[in-house]
């Protein structure tokens, strides 16, 4: 069993307020920094936290966190993308806000393989951004209520409130695949660029592992790999530990620990991978 240590970070609007609701947290690693920067969205605002010094800055927010090189982008309830520049170990400054959505942004995600960023709003609209976040290079509508997204190999993957995974091409906005993945809302989608693994978790307590096949001449398809149920735990977060997708963590609602999994090969040939906790 692996051993991990952690520190607790109290999240408050100011020193006199009660703790607020944390919606998302993500480590961002701008190229100009040695250590990652923790970005947190809460019910009171978006916060950047320096793990080494515990210094904090708070701004207004909504939902969705990503980064490309030295730029950090956070979604806004007004449909704006709030862009911050990291210019050294201890400097994070607000750079600009860019409006490409007419409704509140639900999520933002970037594919690390090609630095392709997509955002979605609560009305089902997708924006594909240029690398510097100055404008959207493409916009299209899904007509669906979206809860979360991720991006893999120029495909934007959306998770809906009715448990569907849908795969759209970022080149032309075409729907490429539709999967009835869960029986309740999908809360998080994680991707592993090197293996093309896709991980989805939901209120239905299920972890589902998929593999995306897009390379020609093979047909476009989404292959199911594995299921695992976490009893009595609605799942709200998921993240691969590395680009290969060999390890991942899952977060559950109202549960203070992260669930850590490894994907290991079974000995007999022809059998699928299995998950161990």
Automatic annotation (TrEMBL):
Where in the numbering of this chain does the WD repeat-containing protein 54 beta-propeller domain appear? Answer: 59-258
The ranges of the WD repeats are 179-212
SUPFAM superfamilies under this entry? WD40 repeat-like
Query: What InterPro entries does the record point to?
Result: WD40/YVTN_repeat-like_dom_sf, WD40_repeat_dom_sf, WD40_rpt, WDR54_beta_prop
Keyword Transport among UniProt keywords: no
Q: Which UniProt keywords apply?
A: WD repeat
* SMART domains xref list: WD40
Top-level taxon in the UniProt lineage: Eukaryota
Name of the molecule in the record: WD repeat-containing protein 54 beta-propeller domain-containing protein
């Amino acid at each position: 069993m692996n051993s991990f240590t952690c520190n607790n970070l109290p999240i408050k609007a100011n020193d006199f307020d009660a703790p607020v609701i944390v919606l998302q947290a993500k480590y961002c690693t701008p190229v100009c920094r040695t250590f990652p920067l923790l970005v947190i969205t809460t019910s009171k605002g978006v916060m950047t936290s320096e793990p080494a010094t515990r210094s904090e800055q708070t701004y207004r927010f909504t939902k969705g966190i990503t980064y490309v090189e030295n730029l950090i982008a956070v979604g806004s309830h007004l449909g704006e993308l709030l862009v911050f520049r990291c210019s050294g170990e201890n400097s994070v400054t607000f750079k600009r806000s860019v409006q490409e959505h007419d409704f509140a942004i639900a999520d933002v995600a970037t594919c690390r393989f090609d630095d392709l960023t997509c955002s979605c709003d609560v009305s089902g609209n997708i924006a594909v951004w240029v690398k510097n976040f100055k404008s959207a290079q493409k916009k299209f509508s899904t007509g669906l209520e979206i809860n979360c997204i991720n991006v893999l190999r120029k495909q934007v993957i959306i998770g809906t409130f009715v448990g569907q995974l849908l795969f759209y091409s970022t080149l032309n906005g075409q729907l490429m695949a539709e999967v009835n993945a869960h029986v309740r809302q999908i809360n998080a989608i994680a991707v592993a660029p090197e293996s093309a693994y896709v991980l989805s978790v939901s209120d239905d307590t299920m972890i589902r592992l998929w593999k995306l096949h897009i390379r020609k001449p093979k047909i476009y398809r989404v292959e199911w790999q594995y299921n695992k149920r976490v009893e009595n735990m609605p799942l709200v977060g998921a993240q691969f530990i590395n680009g290969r997708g060999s390890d991942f963590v899952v977060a559950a609602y109202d549960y203070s620990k992260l669930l850590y999994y490894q994907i290991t090969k079974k000995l007999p040939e022809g059998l699928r991978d299995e998950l161990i906790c």
